[in-house]
Amino acid sequence: MTDLRDGAVLRPARPGDEGGILACIQALADYEREPDAVDNTAAMLAATLFGDDPRAFAFVVEGPDGGIRAIAIWFLTYSTWTGRHGIWLEDLYVHEQYRANGYGVALLAALATECVDKGYSRLEWTVLDWNEPAIGFYRALGAEAMEEWTTRRVTGEALTALAARG
């Protein structure tokens, strides 16, 4: 646990945080202009983050009132080139009224510490190309754009059709 400004603490997520985490996920979807895209539920988050075999993890910033102010949700990747794991940051979100308190930096620093402590070779994520405030924030922390790489995704009917080819 790390003490932050105004009595907030950064800590690993724990059972009971699902509602606050889900509120951050929905707020992020709203910000990214996809308000109807979230199918996740508190029960699904509980199973994913706290079940018998967790495959995703989260850090939260909790305010002195017990409310979740910010989240970082992540999972492990593997690089065949380095032969080591890395961290993929799926979501980083700080509620608007708590921005400029250092929470984003603290969450990314916690992930970087996780990488360094466990010998992971990378910390990676994506950012929407129109999200200039986030891009500037990440650039200031030394994050480099992977201009030559583009993300590809298969979902819905295309995913079902691809599976049928096997």
What keywords describe this structure?
GNAT family N-acetyltransferase; acyltransferase activity; Aminopeptidase; alpha+beta; GNAT_dom; EC 2.3.1.-; Acyl_CoA_acyltransferase; single chain
What is the fold's blueprint, element by element?
Elements: E1 2-3, E2 9-12, H1 18-31, H2 42-50, E3 57-62, E4 68-79, E5 84-94, H3 103-118, E6 123-124, H4 132-140, H5 156-164
Parallel strand pairs: 5-6
Antiparallel strand pairs: 1-2, 2-3, 3-4, 4-5
Q: Please, how many domains?
A: 1
Order of helices and strands: EEHHEEEHEHH
Structural class: alpha+beta
Please count the beta strands (DSSP E, at least 2 residues each).
Answer: 6
Structure description:
This protein is α+β, with helices and mostly antiparallel strands and 166 residues long. It has a single domain (2-164), classed as Gcn5-related N-acetyltransferase (GNAT) (Aminopeptidase, 3-Layer(aba) Sandwich), CATH 3.40.630. Helices cover 34% and strands 22% of the residues. It contains five helices and six strands. Strands 1-2-3-4-5-6 form a six-stranded mixed beta sheet, with helices on both faces. Strand 4 and strand 5 form a beta hairpin. The radius of gyration is 17 Å and the shape is globular. The chain starts with a strand and ends with a helix. The model has no long low-confidence stretch (mean pLDDT 94).
